[in-house]
Amino acid sequence: QFLTVSCMAPSARATATDKSGIVNIRTTINGVDFTDSHLNYSYIPVPVIESISPATGPTAGNTMLVIYGTHFILDADRPLCKFGSSSVPALVLSNTAMQCTSPPRSNEGMRVPVQISLNNGADWSYSNSAHFEYYLSTEVISVDPINGPFNGGTPVRVHGANYVDSELLACKFGNIQSPIVTWISTHEVMCISPKSLPGKVFVTVTSNGIDYNPNKVLYEYIGLPDVQDIIPSWGNRAGGTFVSVRGKNFLSSKDLVCRFGRSSIVP
Predict the structure, then answer these.
(1) What's the rounded Cα separation, in Å, for the pair 66 and 208?
(2) pLDDT tens digits, the chain, 267 residues: what are they?
(3) Rounded to two decimals, what is the model's pTM?
(4) How far apart are the first and last CA of the chain?
(5) Helix (H, G, I), strand (E, B), or coil: what is residue 215?
(6) Which three-class secondary structure state does DSSP give residue 50?
(7) Which DSSP state fits 28?
(8) Residues 6+ positions from 235 with CB-CB distance below 8 Å
């Protein structure tokens, strides 16, 4: 049966280690006779966090982020990330990058320190070097217009909640990202529809470039309306003439209108 003894490691300077930072660990029960058998213990530099991407995420958690820094170890013993007081498993990608997923948090607008451990929480990086900020999850309630030509380029107003004015703000139409996104308010963004195949797709929004809202609101890609004939082709200067327009790709919609010239739009 194995027994466990807990020891606090002294400083590397006190152990007079060589440049490798490796020392032997032996035990004694009488202060004089140490065991012949031993195991190696390595002194390593404290890991340093230089940046986090993304540095924000929803309170629901589950944001996959990468932590960049120095003195990371590929064969680390159960590496961890800590967001405030909550620890989660981590994956060391290289000597300068680690990956982990943010835990959920009950209140938004909370900026918490982020730390990493390379030895299952026995030692942590400094707590003031990096932070992660939580926000409420984005939500899409409606889009206007609800359809547009499949060649894209339609300005679409996306109405919802919790939109953050950031460089990482983005819209997706299905799996295709909008080429231009403009923040208007916490409840509205303007997204230019990208090119796509005809059909219906979900519109989603992210404030951090990664976490998009759940699929709820649809936008339909349609063929561009094509005017082929009008009857009659002339009328009274006073207006009031009923004109039949024939063509292709017309839809029955509240937004269906005709434009005469550049400014006169009539239902």
Answers:
(1) 13
(2) 677 777 777 666 656 556 666 777 778 777 776 777 767 777 778 899 999 999 999 998 999 999 999 999 888 889 999 999 899 999 999 999 999 999 998 865 588 999 999 989 988 998 777 999 998 889 999 999 999 999 999 999 999 999 999 899 999 999 999 999 999 999 999 999 999 999 999 999 999 999 999 889 999 999 888 888 998 988 888 888 889 998 887 877 777 788 888 766 676
(3) 0.72
(4) 88
(5) coil
(6) strand
(7) B
(8) 241, 243
CA gap 95, 186 in Å, rounded: 39
Per-residue DSSP letter, 223: P
Give the H or E element holding residue 66.
strand 64-70
Structure-token match 């796509």, residue found? 196
Q: Where does residue 238 rank: exposed (0-12), middle (13-18), buried (19+ CB within 10 A)?
A: exposed
Tell me how far apart the alpha carbons of residues 65 and 58 are, in angstroms, rounded to a whole number: 12
Contact 168, 200 (CB under 8 A): no
Calpha distance 3→176 (Å, rounded): 58
What does residue 14 show for φ and ψ, rounded to 5 degrees? -70, -25
- The rounded distance, in Å, linking the Cα atoms of 184 and 200 is 25
Q: Report DSSP letters for 151-191, one per residue.
A: T---EEEEEEE----STT-EEEETTEE-S-EEEEETTEEEE
3-state secondary structure of 15: helix
Judge whether 105 and 134 are in contact, CB under 8 Å.
yes
Which has the closest alpha carbon to 209: 36, 90, 64?
Answer: 64
The alpha carbon of residue 49 and the mean position of all alpha carbons in its chain are separated, in whole angstroms, by 20
